[in-house]
């Protein structure tokens, strides 16, 4: 919760050694596990996309072509710059010949 004196739009987390100021959007994107952020759903999808693509021995450009996407889009997803829509996940799953639920598996 914001404390008196905190900058507007920021949430502070005090630790014994340091004080961190996190923008509010940061808290909306990450779950906090102790002092470290846990992986986001976007991160889980990105890691699984990278793993599945590597298992199928498909380049990012080939995957984009098979899925009917811009050739740079798989890279942007794997590097967590974008979050894929359900429609895009369906296209990627079809292009990789996997069940779409595979994108959401933890610790794969």
Counting helices, strands and paired strands, the structural category is alpha+beta
Instruction: State the separation between the terminal residues, measured CA to CA.
Output: 34 Å
Question: Architecture of the largest domain, CATH level 2?
Answer: Orthogonal Bundle
Strand content: 5-15%
Helix content: 40-55%
Order of helices and strands: EEHEEHHHH
Query: How many structural domains are formed by the residues?
Result: 2
- Strand tally, please? 4
What features would you describe in this structure?
With 108 residues, this protein is α+β, with helices and mostly antiparallel strands. It folds into 2 domains: 1-38, no CATH class; 41-104, 434 Repressor (Amino-terminal Domain) (Orthogonal Bundle). It contains 5 helices and 4 strands. A two-stranded antiparallel ribbon has the order 1-2. A hairpin with a 4-residue loop joins strand 1 (10-14) and strand 2. It is globular and about 30 Å long. It starts with 9 loop residues before the first strand and ends in a 12-residue tail after the last helix. Residues 9-20 and 22-32 have low confidence and may be disordered.
Q: What are the salient characteristics of this protein?
A:
alpha+beta; 4 strands; two-stranded antiparallel ribbon; 108 residues; 43% helix; two-stranded antiparallel sheet; 434 Repressor (Amino-terminal Domain)
Concise account of the structure shown:
With 108 residues, the protein is α+β, with helices and mostly antiparallel strands.
Could you give the topology of this structure?
Elements (H helix, E strand, L loop, with lengths): L9 E5 L4 E5 H6 L2 E2 L2 E2 L3 H15 L4 H8 L5 H6 L7 H11 L12
Antiparallel strand pairs: 1-2, 3-4
């Amino acid at each position: 919760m914001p404390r008196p004196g905190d900058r507007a739009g920021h949430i502070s987390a005090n630790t014994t050694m340091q004080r961190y100021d996190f923008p509010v959007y940061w808290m909306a994107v990450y779950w906090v596990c102790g002092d470290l952020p846990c992986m986001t759903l976007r991160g889980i999808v990105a890691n699984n996309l990278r793993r599945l693509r590597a298992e199928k021995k498909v380049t990012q450009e080939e995957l984009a072509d098979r899925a009917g996407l811009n050739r740079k889009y798989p890279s942007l997803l794997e590097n967590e710059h974008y979050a894929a829509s359900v429609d895009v996940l369906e296209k990627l799953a079809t292009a990789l010949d996997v069940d779409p639920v595979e994108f959401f598996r933890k610790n794969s």
